[in-house]
Specification:
- The protein is of the alpha/beta class.
- It has a domain of 51 residues.
- The chain is 41% helix and 26% strand.
Length: 109
């Protein structure tokens, strides 16, 4: 079973991850980058980290994922070029929100 730790606060976004349950993906939501870091410390790779770039601590979440050698995916508004570029510069695989959710099962299974 693959594990996804998601720094995603929006309830509508969280509900979209439900499609992964049928595909044996263990999705764990956390509320802060600090909680993400703590959650990752107890997991054995491969782990995927998902970060919503709308969160104020998104870049800290990306850094936490990389400290634990996880694959890091980030998504955000297609018009927020600064956040998308900053996440890319931090080493995340970056997608616009619409592209991320339309490809979610393929990205995480």
């Amino acid at each position: 079973m693959s594990v996804v730790v998601a720094l995603v606060g929006d309830l509508m976004d969280r509900s979209r991850f439900d499609v992964l349950g049928a595909q044996s993906v263990d999705v764990r939501f956390v509320g802060t980058a600090e909680q993400l870091d703590e959650q990752l410390q107890g997991l054995t790779p491969p782990v995927t980290v998902v970060v919503d770039l709308a969160r104020p601590d998104a870049l800290d979440g990306i850094a936490a994922g990389h400290r634990q050698a996880a694959r890091v995916l980030a998504y955000g508004s297609h018009v927020d070029r600064d956040r998308l570029d900053a996440a890319r510069a931090a080493g995340a695989e970056v997608l616009a929100r619409s592209a991320f959710f339309s490809r979610l099962p393929d990205l995480l299974t």
